[in-house]
Design a protein that fits this description.
The chain contains 18 helices and 30 strands. Helices cover about 25% and strands about 25% of the residues.
């Protein structure tokens, strides 16, 4: 279990978790004006009136394991203009500190840090830091940058609580999570908030900034196998209502909320069961005392927005959301005004620094060089030879061998696992989705990165028992991905999607034959559903292989979250694919490719 922080936050000198400007940073500041370093970051003209005192908040979110600007699947830097990663963020942070003053600047991270790239996978699963005792590479990078606080995102729970505990101990900054509760005690499992004393520009009394951490309750759904019976995720808004007054009573002049939650919009799970997923705007509007909210989770690039407070009429709350993967940071200049003996937020202005516009920090590059090289070596390991090129390009509109490879491995794994059980005689179906449009097994050598590029997520394999009627309803939900196609009209593959459903929610089924008639309205598109040429009866029983995200309710598919579980050995699907390729040594579609589903319009098949 993860050690619980004391609930009572400590008033701390901001410099205790934030590095001072290095000689290299000072040198950067000396080579040109602040405006030359960061165009538009509020440099005042010589004749301008004195600026009011202010502090600066630098925010990042949803970094997802991107330390270096390196695509491990492509074996190259990301495409020009898409610069990202903590090494570039570090340069931006140094430049802001050089311009604004290190003692006047706070740096925060809004969660989803330790999952998302082969680097973080490797040090969680292949050479786990929990076993080696090595410092987590993400903690190394964040510690070098110097954070004042970080909140847990939902993906912090992907690798289990032991990995989270190790990361938390490696991280110099406090890891916050006020609404993450320990089931044994009912108390916060992580530190709820922290106070930082920051020096306003121009000097004067320090301003006390309270930083509250809140995370989406969806982890109770998506990582149920890791948190069930251990953690409860309380309602974000209600938790903020409780904690903000405590922060103010402890001396917070300004309240910043790190909200690993989308600004608004529907959840990807049943909100009747779990508190709402995307509530950042509600925190800003409904919780008295909140001044600034950092949003995240939704991977949107929304540097500045103002939300009218309903809790305090006439007040506006700043909401800032940087772009994901360290592709940007937002730099919020928070102007201060006197409020009795303390400070209050006056106005605010936000600028965004795109990571593509700054170079990588050589300190960060050097810091993780060994971990980077170990990860590169791992992803370039050859696991098999493919008899032909197998691309994912057409997987959204036709049955392709590449997806069938996933289906066969999942089916074989589950069939072997249920042998000798009461479910052994049931047909085994498998569900998979086209996660990547660019995945490909090249003809010839297939490497770990090729397989990882096909299955991008760290899902585990489970299996449930479902009826024929439930399978049909499940397919109807998946078919909502597609737009309508009138009979007799030529279908354009690139225009088939409505755009309302992501590719990873386009579930495809193996083990039965079916047609989806896109001339029919959504909800009535499964035109044929057969097993060995015989229509599937509503009361037929199946074992269905599915990933843990879907089985836990992710995507909102019917029945699967409530279906009886018949297999769950915590086996990672990506590793099962790698193991299967290594065991056979050859990837030949003749061994696993079975065309079993088709798109139609008015009964006529499309894309034959």
């Amino acid at each position: 279990m993860l050690p619980m922080h004391p609930c009572a936050p400590l008033r701390g000198d901001a410099s205790s978790s934030r590095r001072s400007p290095s000689p290299r940073t000072v040198r950067l500041a000396a080579v040109g004006s602040a405006a030359a370093l960061l165009v538009g970051l509020g440099a005042a003209g010589a004749t301008a009136a004195p600026a009011p005192p202010s502090i600066t908040l630098v925010s990042m979110t949803d970094v997802h394991g991107h330390v270096l600007d390196w695509d491990y699947f492509a074996g190259a830097p990301y495409a020009q203009g898409r610069g990202l990663g903590l090494a570039r963020v570090s340069t931006a942070v140094d430049r802001v500190r050089a311009e604004r003053g290190a003692d006047s600047t706070l740096v925060v991270d809004n969660g989803d840090a330790i999952q998302g790239t082969p680097l973080t996978y490797y040090y969680s699963r292949q050479e786990p830091v929990t076993a080696t005792g090595a410092v987590h590479p993400m903690a190394q990078a964040y510690d070098a940058i110097g954070l004042d606080a970080q909140v847990v995102g939902n993906h912090e729970f992907n690798y289990g609580l032991d990995t989270l505990a190790k990361y938390r101990l490696d991280l110099d900054a406090p890891l916050l999570g006020a609404n993450v509760l320990d089931d044994r005690t009912g108390a916060p499992y992580l530190r709820p908030w922290v106070l930082r004393e920051v020096t306003p520009t121009g000097g004067g009394d320090p301003v006390t900034v309270g930083i509250l951490g809140l995370t989406t309750p969806g982890s109770a759904v998506w990582d149920k196998q890791n948190v069930e019976g251990k953690l409860t995720f309380a309602d974000v808004v209600e938790t903020a209502r409780t904690e903000v007054p405590r922060m103010k009573a402890a001396g917070a002049d300004i309240v910043v909320v790190l909200s690993h939650s989308g600004r608004s919009g529907p959840s990807s799970y049943d909100e009747a069961v779990t508190p709402a997923e995307n509530v950042t705007d509600r925190v800003a509007a409904e919780v008295p005392g909140v001044d600034v909210v950092v949003a995240g989770h939704s991977h949107r690039d929304l540097p500045q927005a103002w939300v009218d407070s309903t809790a305090t009429p006439g007040k506006r709350v700043l909401v800032t959301q940087p772009y994901r993967w360290g592709a940007s940071v937002t730099v919020s200049q928070l102007e201060l005004r006197r409020d009795g003996d303390g400070w209050a937020l006056g106005d605010a202005d936000v600028q965004e620094i795109r990571s593509a516009d700054v170079p990588e920090d050589p300190e960060i590059v050097d810091l993780v060089s060994e971990e980077h090289e170990a990860t590169v070596a791992y992803v370039n390991q050859v696991v098999a030879t493919s008899t032909q090129e197998l691309p994912a390009t057409e997987s959204r509109w036709r049955d392709t061998p590449l997806i069938d490879f996933i289906q066969r491995v999942q089916t074989d794994t589950v069939r072997a696992a249920v042998a000798g059980t009461p479910d052994a005689e049931l047909p085994v179906l498998s569900i998979a989705a086209p996660f990547s449009r660019t995945a490909v097994f090249p003809q010839g050598e297939v490497t770990v990165k090729d397989v990882a590029g096909l299955y991008e997520f760290d899902n585990t394999l489970q299996a449930v028992r479902m009826t024929g009627a439930q399978v049909r309803e499940y397919l109807e939900t998946s078919a909502e991905y597609y737009a309508s196609v009138p009979p007799g009209n030529p279908a354009d593959p690139e225009s088939l999607a409505t755009g309302q459903t992501p590719d990873y929610n386009l579930d495809q089924l193996s083990g039965v034959e079916y047609e989806l008639d896109l001339a029919q309205p959504a909800g009535s598109r499964v035109a044929r559903l057969e097993l060995d040429g015989v229509p599937v009866a509503d009361d037929a029983q199946f074992v269905v292989a599915v990933n843990n995200y879907r089985r836990s309710g992710g995507g909102g598919f019917p029945h699967v979250a409530q279906a009886p579980v018949v297999y769950d050995q915590q086996a990672e699907i990506r590793q099962l694919l790698i193991d299967a390729a290594q065991e056979s040594g050859t990837i030949d579609p003749a061994d696993f490719a079975v065309e079993n589903w088709w798109l139609t319009a008015g009964g006529e098949r499309l894309f034959d």
